[in-house]
Amino acid sequence: MYFFEDFAPGDVFELGTVSVTMDQIIEFSETYDPQPFHVDPELALASPFEGLIASGWQTASLFMRRYVDGLLADSACVGSPGVDEIRYHRPVRPGDVLHARVRVLGSSPSFGRSDTGIVKPMCELVDEEGRLVFSMILHSIFERRLTREPVMPMSIDPVHPARSA
């Protein structure tokens, strides 16, 4: 089980691989990003990409699945306040096999919440040739091992504000 204290700058977590198929690209894109170069192999040939490519949102989702399966499922992660700098460095194509990893850039205790801290990993997908295809800087909230109390949403007692959590 990973807690806030288990992450230090420079730590790298290898999260495994994911294969991308044409059917997956088309199915995702027909539902969420139906641009011709994502849903129609023939029209995609005439696009600047010269072939079918995955939606950037699908690429981010592929990473996220590896992050959950490879790390978060065995952690005390309780959410995220956001993401910075999403980048799509290279198109993802049918047949690509992508490797996911996170590299910890830093961490800090949560402001006003002594029971959690925020870990800031650089998230990456690389292709079989080691070329970066996707990156983002994520902010993940983890419970602190020292408290071991469940993280509960903050509430305000409207009658007695001083008694609020």
Produce a short descriptive summary.
By secondary structure, this protein is α+β, with helices and mostly antiparallel strands.
What does this structure look like?
- The protein has helices at 22-32, 36-39, 41-45, 56-70; strands at 12-19, 77-88, 97-110, 113-126, 132-143.
- Strands 1-3-4-5-2 form a five-stranded antiparallel sheet, covered by helices on one side.
- By secondary structure, the protein is an alpha+beta fold.
- It has a single domain, classed as Hotdog Thioesterase (Thiol Ester Dehydrase, Chain A, Roll), CATH 3.10.129.
* Strand order in the largest sheet: 1-3-4-5-2
Identify the CATH homologous superfamily: Hotdog Thioesterase
Mean pLDDT: 91
Cα Rg: 19 Å
Number of strands: 5
Instruction: Describe the global form.
Output: elongated
Q: What is the oligomeric state here? A: single chain
- Helical proportion, percent range: 10-25%
Which percent band covers the strand fraction? 35-45%
Q: How is the main sheet built?
A: 5 strands, antiparallel
Number of domains: 1
Provide the low-confidence segments as ranges. none
End-to-end separation in angstroms reads 27 Å
Q: How many H/I helices? A: 4
CATH-defined fold name:
Thiol Ester Dehydrase, Chain A
Structural class: alpha+beta
Write the CATH architecture name.
Answer: Roll
Q: Using the coordinates above, name the CATH class.
A: Alpha Beta
Order of helices and strands: EHHHHEEEE
